[in-house]
Amino acid sequence: MNRAEQQSPPPEIIQDAGLPCGEGPMWDPDGQCLYWTDAMGRAVYRYDRQRGAVTCLTDAVHAASIVLHRQGGLILGGAEGFFHWRADQPLRLVAGECDGKPALRINDLIADPQGRVFGGQEAFREDGPYEPGYLFRVDPDGSIRIVEEGLHLANGMGFSPDLTSFYLTDTIQRRIYRYDYDPATGEISGRRTLIELDRQDGLLDGMTVDREGFLWVARWFGGAISRFDPDGVLERVIEVPAAQPSSVTFGGPDLDELYVTSAATRWESPLAPAGHDYDLPRGGPVFRFRPGIQGRDEFRAVV
């Protein structure tokens, strides 16, 4: 991959708790706060931007990813399925299986304009054979269905600003797929590869789409965030002071702050670039960059 380097001021550190796998950042414009998870634990965190304070909201459920809910609270996706969390109510299971298949090991989520929730599985196992997994869609009536299969580690998702395209990352394949998307029905079709990395560039992880329709993608083992145009052409690279950035989202009053989660875990893997230096800082903090570009509000769930 050709690297278009972009000079950027050093990031601020929002939290430096050394999380094994910080993940799933989601900005709440109403509360001016950021949510994220520890995907290797059972914690969901909130950063109050006005107060500069970080709190742990819950340790009652495993969560790898988050979307906001229109009626308040969060939809959490994790090892046990899809849950609705609200501070003033018991945890509600939204979906835990689909067509007799447990909808477990949900790794990433996104809501669409109608409040549906897409959630992709982590099927990959480094220690032995495994069956590829699925992308599920939970509809507003609570029904759940499989909408894509053959995924090894489903990750970052997004929509083009005109809502004609849906993006889905498969980390193990080092690919981002582009689908035709129908916002009226929630159907996706016509999968084709938009972006594919070489081994030396690391693994594609979480992502977001900015106001101009460009994709911002965390590169695990790559120590960077890459911005690609809608045709999949690299536009810039922002270096991260951590080898394992995991996901990204825009936030702040003007949606011009880029929040990046990262992971402290030491995962020595043949998927890493050849000669990868494991003595580099792995990660663990949540970073804030100011790239001079605006993001968009994310859609909210109604399931």
Summarize the structure.
By secondary structure, this protein is an all-beta fold. The chain contains no helices and 26 strands. Helices cover 0% and strands 49% of the residues.
Work out the strand percent. over 45%
Main beta sheet, described?
4 strands, antiparallel
Percentage of residues in helical conformation: under 10%
The chain-level structural class is: mainly beta
Mean pLDDT: 96
Per DSSP, the total helix count is 0
C-alpha Rg, in Å? 17 Å
| Shape estimate | globular
Distance between the termini: 39 Å
Summarize the helix and strand pattern as letters: EEEEEEEEEEEEEEEEEEEEEEEEEE
Instruction: Please provide the count of β strands.
Output: 26
Strand order of the largest sheet: 1-26-25-24
Low-pLDDT runs of 5+ residues are none
Task: Name the descriptors.
single chain, 303 residues, mainly beta, four-stranded antiparallel beta sheet, 0% helix, globular
Structural overview:
Helices cover 0% and strands 49% of the residues. With 303 residues, it is mainly β. It is globular, with a radius of gyration of 17 Å.
Task: Draw up the topology in text.
Blueprint lengths: L11 E4 L6 E7 L4 E6 L4 E6 L4 E6 L6 E4 L5 E5 L2 E5 L6 E4 L1 E2 L2 E2 L3 E6 L5 E5 L11 E6 L5 E8 L2 E6 L5 E6 L4 E8 L4 E10 L6 E7 L5 E6 L3 E5 L5 E6 L5 E7 L5 E6 L23 E4 L14
Antiparallel strand pairs: 1-26, 2-3, 3-4, 4-5, 6-7, 7-8, 8-9, 10-11, 12-13, 13-14, 14-15, 16-17, 17-18, 18-19, 20-21, 21-22, 22-23, 24-25, 25-26
